[in-house]
Design a protein that fits this description.
Elements lengths: L1 H22 L14 H7 L5 E2 L10 E6 L12 E6 L7 E6 L12 E5 L4 E5 L2 E5 L6 E5 L11 H6 L1 H4 L3 E9 L11 E6 L4 E6 L13 E12 L5 E7 L5 E5 L7 E9 L9 E6 L3 E2 L5 E7 L21 E6 L3 E2 L4 E5 L18 E4 L25 E7 L11 E5 L54 E10 L4 E12 L16 E3 L1
Parallel strand pairs: 4-7, 11-13, 21-22, 25-27
Antiparallel strand pairs: 1-6, 2-3, 2-5, 3-4, 5-8, 6-7, 9-10, 9-12, 10-11, 12-13, 12-14, 15-16, 15-25, 16-21, 17-20, 18-19, 18-23, 23-24, 25-26
């Protein structure tokens, strides 16, 4: 009897399981949706034209989304209505529909429902699109709906051209590579660089802004499309719709004279007088003529004064420590060092790197900082709370002085107070922005607004060197490849060449 009961229960469970598996093919509750997400719609296309049916759309016959195309500026492919949604997994995806002249009657923020059953999903001129849609198939249900601001770095568009096609995005801090002449205009194709890669910016000759002069740096709000290159592969190109879709950030080139390229914050064994910062000069610098200074900040829980740094980088005591650079030479494109008097690569028992260009080796263990900072056994924090370094032109640093370059490790501790504002000032570089790059709101401090990036903290006392690998292009006055963190674990055999190899920051001309 017991076996009979067990067997009967097994059959019931099997029946339930089969029924459940069948139901899993539909939407929750077993009710098929009339709408297919654009993520699922795009997945139907497998390289050949396909007629959309209720069967291949899992019971759906409609798509619904927000219009992102605007033909008023004359810069989009003719006849394409571009819509996007985030119905599936919160992922934004888009699709273009060829509807002819009627595309001109729709504007960004229009909410539309479109019948796509019986229409054809095809790729024309590189763009995946739906053909056969007529104005009668489209119902506008609302206008002026907000479109989310979607920042996409150019390297992602280049790596995933299908993912971002027909999607409205913003390319932040876009500059041209190579740098155009002062009279060059938008019309044609230009290589737009945002610090992550180069993507083609396309402007039709007849666009309303075609004759506008190219800015040095701007944000571009537009749509990515694909073209088929000579090699048969998809080639992404970015188009913005009208003149108000780019916002100028800079009309002049501002060159960083010194770049922070690496940091040794926690060498093997005792840190006292063995920590150092590696930097690169972007021009010939005679520090006796043009002095600079370097300031580190230590925000470990025991560092005084506690609380928010009301005097910023000039807070002093155990929180910030300044060393001046007032003598020595650094040639353009070469590395130089500032740090403790040890001049060894990884603590007391490691190789000497005294032959490297030490602009300043300062006894921070026994001497107070030059201007502020208490003598210390650790120039940087090793607690996991934020520690950082900033370079300043000149030897006078106050709470209002803007650095030449700055980078932080970790984000913990009392760093930024919003009202009234206190904190560590940043500069415009590859990691930080004095103005919010999208809203243009002021954010001059670390941890304010979008200024939240930091290097990941490495486990203490192992002897890691933070290699900051990037590419700074002098002619453009910008980072064309943002710095990335690479952790080099030093040992007793490590020499200076190991932390100056091809993974480190490169200066391009």
């Amino acid at each position: 009897m017991n076996n009979f009961i067990k067997y009967s229960c097994f059959l019931v469970l099997m029946a339930v399981g089969v029924w459940s598996c069948e139901e899993d093919k539909t939407y929750p509750g077993g009710v098929l949706s009339d709408y297919i997400s654009m993520l699922d719609l795009r997945d139907i296309y497998k390289g050949k034209d396909v007629v959309l049916t209720e069967a291949n759309m899992a019971g759906a016959t409609y798509i619904a989304g927000l219009v992102v195309s605007d033909h008023s500026g004359g810069n989009l492919p003719a006849g394409l209505l571009v819509v996007q949604d985030n119905r599936r997994l919160g992922l934004i995806r888009g699709i273009s529909l060829q509807i002819g002249a009627a595309a001109d009657t729709y504007f960004p923020g229009d909410s539309v429902v479109i019948s796509v059953e019986g229409k054809t999903l095809t790729r024309i001129d590189g763009i995946l699109q739906i053909t056969g849609v007529t104005p009668a198939d489209i119902k506008k249900v609302a206008s002026n709906k907000p479109i989310p601001i979607y920042r996409v770095n150019s390297n992602l568009m280049l790596q995933f051209p299908d993912r971002y096609e027909s999607v409205q995005a913003v390319i932040v801090k876009g500059g041209f590579n190579p740098l155009p002449a002062k009279t060059d205009q938008f019309k044609g194709e230009w290589k737009l660089n945002d610090g992550f890669g180069n993507i083609t910016l396309h402007t039709e000759a007849g666009a309303q802004f075609a004759d506008s002069v190219l800015p040095v740096m701007a944000n571009y709000y537009g749509i990515m499309f694909n073209k088929i290159g000579a090699d048969g592969k998809q080639r992404p190109e970015f188009r913005f719709c009208k003149s108000s879709d780019y916002r100028i950030l800079s009309s002049e080139i501002e060159i960083q004279s010194i770049l922070i390229t690496g940091i040794a914050t926690d060498v093997k064994g005792g840190d006292g007088n063995y920590e150092y910062v590696q930097m690169m000069a972007t021009r010939d610098i005679d520090f006796s003529v043009t002095p600079f200074s370097i300031v580190t900040t230590n925000n470990a829980g025991a560092s005084n004064p506690t609380g928010f740094p009301t005097q910023g980088w000039a807070t002093g005591n155990m929180r910030t420590y300044k060393i001046n650079m007032t003598s020595g030479l650094a040639k353009q494109g070469t590395y130089f060092y500032v740090g403790g008097t040890g001049k060894r690569i990884n603590g007391a028992n490691s190789k000497s790197i005294a032959e490297s260009n030490w602009i300043r080796a300062y006894d921070y263990v026994n001497l107070a900082g030059e201007g502020f900072g208490a003598k210390t056994g650790g120039w940087f924090a090793n607690s996991g709370n934020a520690t950082g370094v900033a370079v300043f032109e000149g030897t006078t640093v106050t709470k209002d002085t803007k650095p030449v370059d700055v980078i932080f490790i970790s984000g913990g501790g009392s760093l930024f107070q919003a009202s009234p504002e206190y904190g560590y000032r940043i500069t415009n570089n590859d990691w930080y922005d004095v103005l919010n790059p999208i809203t243009l709101a002021s954010q001059p401090y670390y941890r304010a607004g979008t200024n939240t990036l930091f290097l990941s903290y490495n486990t203490a006392d192992l002897g890691y060197f933070y290699v900051l690998g990037g590419e700074y292009t002098l002619s453009l006055g910008r980072w064309t490849k943002a710095r990335t963190q690479m952790n080099y674990l030093m040992d007793t055999a490590t020499v200076a060449a190991n932390i100056q190899d091809s993974t480190a920051t490169q200066l391009k001309f």
